[in-house]
Every structure is written in C-alpha cells, then in structure tokens.
Amino acid sequence: MTTKINWRKVGYVTIILLIVAYLSASISVFAFRSEERICTSCRVTIEDSLTLRFVSKKEVLTFLEQDKLSPLGVRGEMIDPAKIEKSLENKSRIKKAECYKTPSGKVNISIYQREPILRVITEKSNYYVDRDGEVMRIAENFAAYVPVVTGCVTEKFAKSELYDFALFLHDNAFWNAFVEQIDVNEREELIIIPRVGNQIVKLGKLEGYQKKLDKLYQVYKNGFNKLGWNCYKEINLMYEGQVVCTKK
C-alpha cells in the first residue's frame, strides 16, 4: 500500500521551521550586539516615592559609584544586574532592588524603600525600626511621621517587644493617629504622650498592652467625649482592670 505524502502540510512545517530558525538566529545576533553596546543611560525608579522619600534617584547612582558598580560607560557583557541588586539591598534604607538591561544598551533599576514604624532617639542613638523589625538609618532630608521613642531604649528592646507594640499601633488607625511619643524608663515601663491633649498615659509594662489600650479607648469614646480630654493630667493603665485618671 502506497502512502500518499501531503506536500502542503510538509510545506507548512518547513516554513514554520525556517521562521523559528530565523528568529532564533536573529535573537542570538541581537543579544550579542546588545552585550557589545556601551551603557549610556541608567534609569532609576523609586516605586513608592509617593509615600516614602528615604532614598533619591541621585543617591542610588551614588551608591553604585561608591561600590564601583555604575553601569554608565560600561559594556553590556560587563554589567551584572544581580550584583547591582545585591549591592543596593545592602543599604539600610532600601528593602528591594530590581535591575535589568535592555537590548538598546540601557539599564533600568526599580527601588522599593523600607517602611519605618517607630523612631528611637536617645543620647547615643538615632534610628528608625522598619516594618520588618530591622534598623534603618535616618535620612537627612526626610522624617517619617511615626512615634518617637525616648528614654532607656536598647536596640534589642526596640527590635523585639517595642517593635511588636509599634506594629500594632501602626496598623490601627485610631492608635496610629493618637500616639506621638513613647518614653521608656529603666524598668521598660512605657509612658505615652498623645498627639492631642495635654495628658500623659502610663501604660506600664508591655504585657497585655492590647487589653490596656482597649480600656483606654472606651474611656476616650464614652467618657472624655462628654467630659473633655483636657480635664486630666494623667491616665494610668498600670492597675489590673482599672483606668485611673488624675485631674489637673
């Protein structure tokens, strides 16, 4: 029995194979030429610049120059995007960096900044703690709108119990707007200074802070809205099951 060859199908397959081969060869040549190109442009994008301004485009380029990784004037084959990303992510104010080369010989870098949730200011220290519990350096031209912590604050305490407390405040709209400053004594007891009103809030130890703040919220909601916030100079949450208010 003779098998009939479908020459039309063979023709289609041949054309497709030729096109694939041509495209593969073109891509290889194009990629080779791209690697031969000299980088004439490095585009830096700060992806979260609308809410955070801890890092500028100029600083990113300066970081690369300091680490001898600036792609400008360098042949494409000598530019290592992974090395650039790792270098930038080692900077305390940068959370993530993404870098890639374009066929035209340009380099694009996207930067994501760290998000601070508290600032520690003592005689010896001045730094932020970010959302991941890591220490951030202070930016010269920008200050974050976060609670300032003063007093007897060790870095270990700032990155552990105090970090958990600050994260709770940050993620709660009421408390995020309420707390302006936190003072810590040598026994790691906290005093909160609100943004509104002249009173101070003695929180005490951080154990059970959510229950303490829930009680305080009820006082502000049901009591102070009727009597006024400025009638008291001190609110003490250090007693079990009680909120003790001291009048002026």
- Residue runs with pLDDT of under 50 for 5 or more positions: 25-32
Query: What percentage of amino acids are in beta strands?
Result: 25-35%
> First CA to last CA: what distance?
111 Å
What is the CA-atom radius of gyration, in angstroms?
29 Å
Overall shape: it is: elongated
- Contiguous helical run count: 7
* Helix residue percentage: 25-40%
Short account of what is shown:
The protein has 7 helices and 12 strands. By secondary structure, the protein is α/β, with parallel strands linked by helices. The protein has a 9-stranded mixed beta sheet.
Descriptive account of the structure:
The chain is an alpha/beta fold and 248 residues long. The protein folds into two domains: 42-113, Ubiquitin-like (UB roll) (Roll), CATH 3.10.20; 116-247, Rossmann fold. Helix content is 35%, strand content 25%. It contains seven helices and twelve strands. The chain has helices at 7-36, 57-66, 81-89, 155-158, 161-170, 173-178, 209-227, and strands spanning 42-46, 94-101, 107-113, 116-121, 126-130, 135-136, 148-151, 179-184, 190-194, 200-204, 232-236, 244-247. The strands form two sheets. Strands 6-5-4-7-8-9-10-11-12 form a nine-stranded mixed β-sheet. A three-stranded mixed β-sheet has the order 1-3-2. A hairpin with a 5-residue loop joins β9 and β10 (200-204). It starts with 6 loop residues before the first helix and ends with a strand. 22% of the residues are buried. The model is unreliable at 25-32 (pLDDT under 50).
